């Protein structure tokens, strides 16, 4: 296990490396929508650097170096200031490194000097502020540490006569732009996080409204369909009494239609309850074991149906998908090819195949959502579904993972 000290050293090393070494996307925190008011800012900051360089080379450094050479020596700092509004970390790196180079390049002042001369603060402070502002995460710590090390070099290692007492004062002054930049960056991050949360909340509210609208539509559909299904069930159940004597096959057919109508009503009511409460269904869902009773019921309803089912163990969601595909496939065959022979095969693997021949009567058009819905069910589990006409009918084949 690593100790607290080891973790602190690792954090410090990572922070310094992130501050010194450029990485892709490090200015993502700084990115903002372009505005006409912000476009002149790099020009203004660069102009500020040039003005400071002209003033310093003509009034401060002219006694230590030729004015023209001093101006050229300060130009990289002006360039860093022009870059700072767009690439604050790169500008801070350039400015900090060149400020240390200038301490060795320029002749030292004749008298004891402060840790950083006034002109140095004028050029470096904006870079410190924007660098700490734009540094993401732990990189802010690295910016502070590297800037402090630069101050130590300026006080201790340069040819200038700098009293050691200036080190503490210069480091204390360094804390102001760095602290202000870090505070502005933290405020910036907080505002952006709030904006993201606000957008996510708006999206969630819109989705909730869409779900509520779907539930309302489902209730209206239930009210419309339930009325007609109830009438079908009632008329089928009362037909033997209203119409007098009926053949036994007719009575059995009407009873099966009434039972199917009642089953459909119960399923619709259960689905509506889920939409109203937002809870998952509590009643057991059909699976592979329920496919054979479904086929028996379809054969009793008059479908010329044969089947071959291999018993396999699959997860409940996969079994439910197989059941729904078989039910929808039988419904499609009855609708589009009435009277056609149908063969259902469920083989190990798990492969569901439904093949029907040509119908004995004209089919009725559907809504065109049966096959897409079955394909979506199969793809949810990573399976596939193919459907298309054959030489003498139609074939549907679904492969589901076990």
Compact overview of the structure:
This protein has 402 residues and is of the alpha+beta class. The protein has helices at residues 4-20, 41-59, 67-83, 88-105, 118-134, 139-156, 166-242, 248-277, 291-300, 316-336, 370-380, and strands at 305-309, 342-347, 351-356, 384-390, 393-399.
What does this structure look like?
The protein is α+β, with helices and mostly antiparallel strands. The chain folds into three domains: 4-164, no CATH class; 209-277; 288-399, Heat Shock Protein 90, CATH 3.30.565.10. It is 63% helix and 8% strand. The protein has eleven helices and five strands; from the N terminus they run αααααααααβαββαββ. It has helices at 4-20, 41-59, 67-83, 88-105, 118-134, 139-156, 166-242, 248-277, 291-300, 316-336, 370-380, and strands at residues 305-309, 342-347, 351-356, 384-390, 393-399. It has a five-stranded mixed sheet with strand order 1-2-3-5-4. α4 (88-105) runs antiparallel to α5, α5 (118-134) packs antiparallel against α6 (139-156) and α6 runs antiparallel to α7 (166-242). The mean pLDDT is 83. InterPro entries: HATPase_C_sf, Sensor_HK_TwoCompSys, Sig_transdc_His_kin_sub3_dim/P. Keywords: ATP-binding, Kinase, Membrane, Nucleotide-binding, Phosphoprotein, Transferase, Transmembrane, Transmembrane helix, Two-component regulatory system. The chain crosses the membrane at residues 41-61, 67-84, 91-106, 118-135, 142-162. This is histidine kinase.
């Amino acid at each position: 296990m690593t100790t607290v000290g080891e973790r602190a050293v690792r954090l410090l090393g990572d922070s310094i490396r992130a501050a010194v070494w450029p990485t892709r996307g490090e200015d993502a925190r700084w990115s903002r929508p372009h505005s006409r008011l912000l476009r002149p800012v790099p020009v203004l900051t660069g102009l500020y650097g040039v003005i400071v360089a002209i003033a310093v080379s003509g009034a401060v450094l002219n006694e230590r170096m030729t004015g023209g050479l001093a101006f050229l020596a300060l130009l990289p700092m002006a360039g860093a200031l022009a870059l700072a509004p767009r690439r604050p970390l790169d500008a801070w790196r350039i400015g900090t490194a060149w400020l240390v180079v200038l301490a060795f390049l320029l002749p030292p002042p004749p008298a004891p000097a402060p840790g950083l001369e006034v002109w140095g603060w004028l050029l470096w402070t904006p870079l410190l502020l924007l660098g700490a502002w734009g540094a993401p995460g732990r990189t802010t710590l690295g910016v502070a540490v590297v800037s402090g090390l630069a101050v130590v070099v300026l006080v201790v290692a340069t040819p200038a006569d700098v009293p050691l007492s200036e080190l503490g004062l210069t480091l204390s002054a360094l804390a102001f732009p760095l602290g202000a930049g870090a505070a502005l960056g933290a405020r910036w991050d907080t505002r952006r996080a709030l904006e993201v949360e606000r957008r996510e909340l708006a999206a969630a509210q819109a989705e909730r409204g869409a779900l509520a609208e779907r539930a309302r539509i489902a209730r209206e559909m239930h009210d419309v369909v339930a009325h007609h299904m109830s009438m079908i069930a009632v008329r089928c159940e009362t037909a033997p009494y209203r119409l007098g004597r009926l053949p036994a096959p007719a009575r059995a057919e009407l009873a099966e239609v009434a039972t199917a109508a009642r089953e459909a009503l119960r399923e619709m009511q259960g689905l509506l309850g889920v939409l109203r409460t937002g809870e998952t269904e509590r009643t057991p869902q059909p699976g592979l074991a329920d496919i054979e009773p479904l086929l028996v019921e379809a054969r009793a309803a008059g479908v010329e149906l044969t089947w071959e089912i291999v018993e396999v163990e699959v997860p409940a969601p996969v079994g439910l998908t197989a059941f729904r595909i078989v039910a929808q496939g039988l419904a499609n065959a009855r609708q589009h090819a009435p009277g056609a022979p149908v063969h259902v095969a469920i083989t190990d693997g798990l492969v569901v195949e439904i093949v029907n021949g040509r119908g004995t009567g004209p089919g009725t058009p559907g809504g065109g959502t049966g096959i897409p819905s079955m394909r979506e069910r199969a793809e949810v589990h990573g399976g596939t579904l193919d459907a298309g006409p054959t030489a003498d009918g139609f074939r549907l084949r679904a492969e589901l993972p076990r």
